[in-house]
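Next comes this protein:
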Amino acid sequence: MKKVYVLLLAVMLTCLGCQWQFSSSDDFSENGVSVERYDRIQSLYLNTGDFSALQQMNTHYPQQTRTLIEDVLKIGRVNEPEINVKFLNFYQDTTLQTLIASVEHEFASMDDVDRDLDAAFSRLEEMLPGIAVPFIYAQIGALDQSIIVGDSLLGISLDKYLGSSYPLYLRQDYGYTDSQRSMMTRDYIVPDCIGFYLLSLYPMPSAPQTTQLDRDMHIGKVQWVVNQAMNRTVFNTLYVRSVGHYMKSHPGVTVDSLLRDNTNLKLIGR
């Protein structure tokens, strides 16, 4: 399996029967970018232990299941003899059962997210011709990662987008700040998808001489592109505004060059 990048949000979720097939996507344009509802199959298995749902997870979504078990939850290897029981038991925790129910209610439909994703990736393709659109799916994590990017996949942990006033987020033992909670909302799903996908394609500068300002400016560049893809101002930091001024003053600079060439960091930072 190729390396999986688990990206954390730092700056800036009852049917039974062997013949039954679970619907894993919302009714959206067949040709548009949309979220595959892996979370629905996951939820069915975790709520009922239904074997047909488990089979679907393993046969139709093997990479997603492996990533969830091994890289997100870190509860073992997907080929371990008792991993399915371990996986099921892990989610019997009261907090996680509450999360599952909340996700089912809050995200009964994701048509609005699908529309925004489709529009954002269309704009992104105009800015970055030839960019590949990843396979996007939703899952239920354990209040850890928000977006998971790797091997042409992009996973959304819906448990991290239940709203800034969601009761579990307010608990002191989780330690979420007001700033963090303000971004744990439905409105940030698509910007986060675009932002973390761009970071996987255009990683943070890692040269020995890289400064914190360089890192902040790189994030500012990514967030500026996210704003363009969303066609609205999602991020409005000093760094984002600096990038906007730079791009207005340098109309010949392409978005690919902006993101790829770290020598422009010092120019932007002036």
In short: Strands lie at 5-7, 135-139, 147-150, 153-157. Residues 212-230 form the longest helix (19 residues). Residues 95 and 168 are 8 Å apart (CA to CA).
